[in-house]
Design goal:
mainly alpha; single chain; 0% strand; 22 helices
């Protein structure tokens, strides 16, 4: 395993995430204060509708990196280029279809959704721009393949950092110079997407100059190969959408725009956590594909176990901190909210974040479905859970007054059941190894989280946080303690020795 390359990819992605998260935390309260809860909720709802449309594009795009990489590693450059070109031209066709369908939807948006009349114009513009950004992201995805193929995710992360900085500067300028509009968020994202398309295209020419797009390389048989595998990812995405992606839509239809806005705010941290976990899985994904392509099964299993420990080590401490110190954080972050609103946001945030506590302990196991191209079982399992979740949520919304709490809680419950009882076993089945192989690191991660959480809850009851200085000071001190404990608890003696030796060698080189 190329641990150095994995480490570089991991660190660069962490840095990219921290900058993006920091930007969101600075900008979100400003936006909420300027446009209100209801208006802010429609930004999240527009993103959800983009994810619904993205289900259609996943059929072709989700497996592109995998097939291109496999052929490229085998030195079959013509085959790799045929996949590469076929994806590009299919994205053009899909973009046209998306444009037609979304135009019809947006023209009738006030009939299909609960939109206050005073927000109708802004909401329409927000949805239009969101779907334009979806189309742009399709081409950014294909140009980003070169970073995946060459295992240089770090270079892609650097460009994401620059793109987020551009987005933030533009967003702040628009809110400062012009009257507040919710579509500024998506407009600044489009500018970022254009920057990423150009920079990733240049990067692809540098990393893989022999990957080219030509009309003569386009063949439907390659589209069929991608679609045959990608259809399962698409169905899986549909199932996941039914499980966790209909929350804002249900809130809009059953609770109202204000309830939807509160839920959207509460999901800010959970959404960031989910994005971070997906980023981490992408960090290890190229290494998994390369090892699987070479038939190095033993090294692949070792790398998977290593990835579970590393992601657990990084994620479990902040997850425990979010739960334990959430109330003082939200008071500081959203000072205009009442005590009861803060409590509601914290409850919704915890309900939304519960699945990621489980996922953080085995998230990279999801990746093995695509790596091994064995997608049928997880799709069926997710689809069953999603149907149960949707039906249960609608029933509770009809017979109780739980509102957004039912929406957030039910989907989380079913997601936890799937991750805990299915994903860990399914990953072992994919690699034809003993079903309990990955349970040891998984359960060890959960035990570590539980111990850190208990410690943080006790600490929170003994301290008082009145300012950001207090919050940063306490979180910094107890975060370091939590990471030291997880480092000692999760890693083996050999892994700890190697890590410390590497730190020592870095220190010696600097001195």
């Amino acid at each position: 395993m190329d641990k150095k390359r994995v480490l570089i990819n991991l660190v660069s992605n962490i840095l990219s995430f921290i900058i993006q998260l920091g930007i969101n935390f600075i900008v979100t309260p400003i936006i909420v204060l300027k446009v209100g809860d209801a208006a802010y909720g429609f930004v999240g709802l527009a993103n959800n509708f983009v994810s619904y449309a993205n289900i259609f594009t996943i059929v072709i795009n989700s497996m592109a990196s995998r097939f291109i990489t496999v052929e490229y590693v085998k030195d079959k450059k013509d085959e790799a280029n045929k996949y590469y070109s076929s994806v590009f031209f299919m994205n053009i066709i899909m973009s046209i279809l998306i444009f037609v369908v979304t135009t019809i939807f947006i023209m009738n948006i006030d009939v299909l959704l609960n939109v206050p009349q005073e927000l109708l114009g802004d909401v329409k513009i927000t949805f239009v721009l969101s779907f334009i950004n979806l189309i742009l992201s399709l081409f950014n995805t294909i140009f980003n393949v070169a970073a995946f193929v060459s295992n240089r995710i770090d270079l892609s992360a650097i460009r994401n950092i620059a793109g987020n900085l551009i987005k933030t500067i533009l967003l702040i300028l628009m809110f400062v110079l012009f009257r507040a509009r919710i579509y500024y968020i998506v407009l600044s994202t489009i500018i970022m997407s254009l920057f990423l398309i150009i920079s990733n295209y240049r990067l692809s020419k540098k990393l893989c100059p022999d990957l080219v797009i030509k009309k003569e390389f386009f063949e439907f048989k390659y589209v069929k190969v991608l679609a045959k595998s990608g259809i399962w990812n698409s169905i899986n995405s549909l199932s996941k959408t039914l499980l966790t992606g209909l929350d804002l839509l249900m809130a809009n239809l059953f609770v109202g725009p204000v309830g939807m806005g509160i839920l959207s705010i509460a999901k800010t941290i959970p959404t960031a956590i989910e994005n971070l976990l997906a980023t981490f899985s992408n960090t290890f994904n190229p290494q998994f594909v390369l090892l699987y392509s070479k038939g190095n099964k033993e090294e692949l299993i070792h790398t998977v176990n290593y990835s579970l420990k590393i992601i657990g080590l990084i994620m479990l401490v902040p997850l425990a901190g979010i739960i334990a110190f959430g109330i003082p954080f939200f008071h500081l972050w959203l000072p205009a909210k009442s005590d009861q609103e803060i409590i509601n946001i914290q409850i919704l945030s915890i309900l939304s974040i519960l699945p990621f506590i489980i996922s953080a302990s085995n998230y990279t196991l999801f990746v093995l479905d695509s790596v091994t191209n064995k997608l049928k079982r997880p799709v069926i399992a997710t689809f069953i859970m999603s149907l149960l979740s949707t039906v249960t949520t609608i029933i509770l919304l009809k017979i109780t007054d739980w509102g957004v709490f039912a929406i957030a809680g039910v989907s989380s419950m079913y997601w936890i059941i799937k991750v805990f009882f299915f994903n860990t076993i399914n990953a072992a089945i994919n690699l034809n190894i003993k079903w309990y192989t990955f349970f040891r690191p998984f359960l060890k991660n959960l035990l570590c989280f539980s111990l850190v959480l208990v410690f943080y809850v006790l600490i929170n009851n003994m301290i008082a946080i009145y300012s950001y200085f207090d919050f940063i000071l306490y979180v910094g001190i107890f975060g370091i303690i939590g990471y030291i404990f997880c480092f000692l608890f999760l890693l083996s003696k050999n892994e700890k020795d190697k890590f410390l030796k590497k730190l020592k060698s870095i220190y010696n080189r600097k001195t």
